[in-house]
Design brief:
Length: 210
């Protein structure tokens, strides 16, 4: 890690711990078969990509879940609860680290997410940290469903770099998905793959970044 002036953080499993198997288990209970093929870390049904790009509404997403499960009687709340089962917790100290990093670097959040999850984690932030959203922790935040593009598409990385006049070689991108790092590397961005049990607090300490 050399000459780092800017850091772009992913959200899930970098800042906010998540568990894909929790969603798979919840979808199974709703009646969805082959959930590993339907939704996972490395592959998923096209409906999820569409939701993350903001190409479909929450209502259209829920109707698709009802269709696939064969249960038209499922309520919005049942579907949202299953979908939000992915979230675990934000480890103690992560926000303190982000504020320290913001004081030393230009920091950004870049997350593939969707309107349902966005509402969930903002509610979580309000309940546990009295924060309305993530804005105070970064210079700027980017969410796929708002940007209308998602990782690993090069366009969303280019947007972050261009809008903020960032030099790729001076920028570090931290993500838990290898396929996202491939695109970032191709653009000249320095990258780090975050894999548990490693975490950002240990990584920053190890690399002497703060």
């Amino acid at each position: 890690m050399q000459n780092i002036k800017n850091i772009i953080f992913d959200y899930g499993n970098v800042i906010f711990n998540i568990d894909y198997t929790k969603v798979q288990d919840a979808f199974k209970k709703l009646g969805i078969n082959n959930v590993e093929d339907f939704y996972g870390h490395k592959q998923q049904d096209a409906i999820f990509n569409a939701l993350e790009r903001g190409d479909i509404s929450n209502a259209e997403f829920r109707d698709r879940i009802r269709e696939i499960s064969g249960k038209p009687e499922l309520s919005d709340e049942q579907i949202d609860n299953a979908w939000n089962a992915i979230f675990l917790e934000i480890p103690e100290g992560n926000h303190d680290l982000l504020l320290k990093a913001k004081g030393k670097y230009r920091t950004f959040l870049l997350s593939n997410t969707n309107a349902i999850h966005y509402d969930y984690f903002n509610d979580y932030l309000k309940k546990h940290y009295n924060l309305d959203n993530n804005d105070a922790l970064f210079e700027k935040t980017y969410f796929s469903h708002i940007a209308r593009k998602r990782k690993p598409e090069s366009a969303i990385f280019a947007q972050v770099l261009t809008e903020n006049n960032l030099k790729p070689e001076e920028t570090l991108f931290i993500d838990d998905s290898p396929q996202h790092l491939v695109t970032a590397k191709a653009l000249g961005i320095q990258t780090y793959l975050m894999i548990a049990p490693d975490n950002i607090q240990e990584f920053f300490k190890r690399e002497k970044l703060v």
